Structure formats: C-alpha cells, structure tokens
From TrEMBL:
Gene3D superfamilies: DD-peptidase/beta-lactamase superfamily. Pfam families: Beta-lactamase (PF00144). It comes from Streptomyces cuspidosporus. Residues 29-339 form the Beta-lactamase-related domain. This is Beta-lactamase-related domain-containing protein.
C-alpha cells in the first residue's frame, strides 16, 4: 500500500467536495435499504477523504431514531482489535508472530504435523482449529451460547481437538483460534488487555464488553426473525467478538485510524495488521485479523464483518481512496449459498460508490 502510505485521499478537490456534499443522501439511501431488508434500526458511518457522516434510521432506544452513539453488539470485527493487540506486542518485542501458542499447563494445545500452532496462524485463521470448541454447544442456551462456557470447559474441549490441517497450510475461519489468541496474550484478562492496548489509546470509549449504565440507555435491542433476543455474554472466548459492544461513532474513529495510521498512536501496529500474510484464494488474502479482497479497477478493500444472536455489522475501507464504511443493524442475518448477508452487501456497495466518486 505504498501509494496510500500517508493516508491522503487521491480524489481531486472538486470531486471530493461533490461526493462529500451528497453524503447524507447517499447514506440515507443505504439505510433505507437496510430497513427494507428487515432491520428494525440501522446506523451507518462513512469516511470520505476529510469528510465524515454518521446517520441512523428506524426506531432506536426509547423510540427515538438511532444515531452514532447508539450501542450495538460488534461481533467479529472485534477480531481486528485482538489482532491489533497482538501487533502491539510484536512491535514491543514481547512476542513474535512465529511464536508458538502457549497456554497454562492444564490447557492442551492441539497439534497436527511437526510444526506447532503459532500466533500468526491464529491471527490469519490458518491454525487448523475448528470454528468452535467441540463442547461449546452442549447444554448451551441457544440465545446466549457462550455465557455458560468456563475456562475448565475450554481445557476439556481442547483435549478433544485434532486440527483438520497442519498449521499455516489452509484458511478456515475460527472463533476458537481468535479466542485462544486473546488468552495467549492476556490469560483470563482479555477484556482488560484490549481496553489498555487498543480501545483506550484509540479513544474508543464505547467499545467494551462491560455495558456501562449510560451505554445501556443507548443500546439497541437485538432481534432474530423479528423478535427481540438477549445480548450475548462471554468471558472465555471474548477476543473473538462474542460479547463486545460498540457504536458507529467509535467505529468511524477506528476506521480513520486504519486509513491514516501515521496520525494514530498505534501506527506501527495498525500497519502490521493490514499487511497480507496468507492467500486464501483469488478473492481473498488475510492480514492479521483483516481480510483483503480485490474490487474493480484494481482496488483493494480491507474489511471484516460481525454478528451475534441479534446484531449484524460490517466495516470496510480503502486506503488508496481514503474511504471507509461501517454499518450496524440490530438483527441477526446470515449469508445464503447465493447471496451475502444484507449488511455486508450494502457496506461493500456503498464503499464502491464512494471509491468511484
């Protein structure tokens, strides 16, 4: 990304001004599409060069319209925060990307083949580990599936795993892998570690697993198939994103740091996370946490999506154009064999429009 190393937008002043002037109408169009797709409420944040616009639609907390301070569960976008914490540790010299996964003695580390699972394997989904621990769902509440899971359960579950592939050889998305990455970085203190190493330095005050009273009053209610559902809670695998909250305002601030690392206190770590580490296919390369996909015109979109039982989110950006989009909705959705999740499709399409402006 040498051409965008400074984070400066490559749009002409006239074109950028024209695009910036229509941002509210453009964002509103995509919010309406999110509501049409079944979301009770939606918030979208956009960065376009020097301009930022955040807006919401639908019915938010207390019956008012949602806005940039409305709280949603973030889901797996949290993995990019965990990867940033790893990158900070690497930059500080306290670990290496090729360091083997080490956990306390009672937690057996699964293995397959001669090479041990490393930190970079976990951060790029190439560990060979399954998506979830084999004993996670036994006895789980379907509406809050991680809440019952303890460190003792994790120790038992790890002993039942044989990785599907040798580490570093194949991409397979793993919530378990990122959960273990968090535990390897800060055993039994993952949430505190993420706050100290990532969210606090970046000023992401509402990006937390601890729902403060003032946040609770601003929180959207999650939905599944049109019905309200409870939030997810998790202590053991929270580094994967199973219990993190955030707002569009915080995510816009986070995306600005991704677009302009030189202006961030975490410059070196952010640059490290965005660097491609593994090629998973023609349409996908993987950095630390982030996914990188080609778009038309030779552009590269860096992105991650997320979801819990009642929320869906997506964030994407393009360093070359200086554009970024985050969309947060309070309903669960999933992709089908033929179509992406609506929140993902809308996020990517809006970024494409901004890039083409």
């Amino acid at each position: 990304m040498a051409t965008a190393a400074t984070g400066a937008p490559l749009l002409s002043g006239h074109t950028a001004a024209a695009a910036g002037g229509r941002l509210p109408a453009l964002v509103r169009r995509y919010l309406d599409r999110a509501l049409d797709a079944g979301s009770p409420s939606a918030v979208c944040g956009v960065v376009h060069g020097a301009r930022t616009h955040v807006a919401g639609a639908g019915e938010g907390p207390g019956g008012s319209a949602p806005d940039g301070r409305t709280v949603f569960q973030l889901g797996s976008i949290t993995k990019t925060l965990t990867a940033t914490a790893l990158a900070r540790a690497v930059c500080a010299g306290t670990t290496r990307l090729d360091a083997p996964l080490v956990l306390p003695d009672r937690f057996p580390v699964p293995h397959k083949g001669p090479r041990r699972i490393t930190m970079v394997d976990l951060a790029t989904h190439t560990s060979g580990l399954p998506s979830l621990p084999p004993n996670l769902l036994a006895g789980a509440d379907p509406e809050d599936p991680y809440a019952h899971y303890t460190l003792d359960d994790l120790a038992t579950g790890l002993g039942e795993i044989t990785p599907a592939t040798e580490p570093g050889s194949s991409y397979a998305y793993s919530n378990l892998g990122f959960g273990l990455l968090g535990q390897a970085l800060a055993f039994d203190a993952v949430d505190t570690m993420l706050r100290r190493r990532v969210t606090s330095p970046l000023g992401l005050r509402d990006t937390t697993t601890a729902l403060r009273p003032d946040m609770a009053s601003r929180k959207a209610v999650g939905h599944l198939a049109g019905a309200p559902v409870p939030d997810w809670h998790d202590h053991v695998l929270s580094a994967a994103g199973s219990s993190m909250y955030s707002t569009a305002d915080d995510m816009v601030r986070y995306l600005r740091a991704q677009l302009h690392p030189a202006r961030s206190p975490l410059r070196a770590a952010i640059e490290l996370t965005q660097r491609p580490r593994f090629t998973a296919g023609d349409q996908l390369r993987v950095g630390l946490g982030w996914h990188l996909s080609p778009r038309s015109g030779g552009r590269t979109m860096t992105w991650h999506n997320g979801g819990t039982g009642g929320f869906s989110t997506c964030a994407a950006f393009n360093r070359e154009s200086g554009s970024a989009v985050v969309m947060m909705v309070n309903t669960y959705s999933e992709q089908t064999a033929t179509d992406p999740r609506p929140v993902d499709a809308l996020t990517f399409a809006l970024l494409d429009e901004l890039d083409a402006a």
